[in-house]
Amino acid sequence: MFDSRSRYRDQPQREIELADGTRQRHVLPRWIPEPGEATIGAQHRATDSDRLDNLAFRYLGLAEGWWLIADAGLEMHPAKIGSKPGENVGIPLPQAGPVKG
């Protein structure tokens, strides 16, 4: 159902039967790790033109991996990560530590 790079690839799924007899699949919500659980491999000093997808491509080689950086940070809203020039953004090691999709 999901691409192998998706943060939802390993999420449990449930299927329900609707009143008309059709079946509908749902993905259960994913667990968000506690801040600080990721193994940080690099620090990036933010500029006013940074975007998470560009940082993910630059450091992880995968633009779709922006959520790994978001999960590793203390900020709850992905758009705010690295939004202040000069702020350090932790870049996690890919597939290291308990950061999961």
How does this model look, in words?
The radius of gyration is 16 Å and the shape is elongated. Strands 1-2 form a two-stranded antiparallel ribbon. A two-stranded antiparallel ribbon has the order 3-4. It has helices spanning 52-60, 66-72; strands spanning 13-17, 23-27, 40-45, 88-92. It folds into 2 domains: 1-30, no CATH class; 35-101. The protein is of the alpha+beta class and 101 residues long. The two termini are 14 Å apart.
**Strand arrangement across the biggest beta sheet:** 1-2
Helices and strands, in order, run as EEEHHE
Strand content: 15-25%
**What's the structural domain tally?**
2
Question: How would you briefly describe this protein structure?
Answer:
With 101 residues, the chain is of the alpha+beta class. The protein contains two helices and four strands; from the N terminus they run E-E-E-H-H-E. Helix 1 crosses helix 2 (66-72).
What is the fold's blueprint, element by element?
Elements: E1 13-17, E2 23-27, E3 40-45, H1 52-60, H2 66-72, E4 88-92
Helix pairs in contact: 1-2
Keywords:
2 domains, two-stranded antiparallel sheet, alpha+beta, 2 helices, 101 residues, disordered C terminus
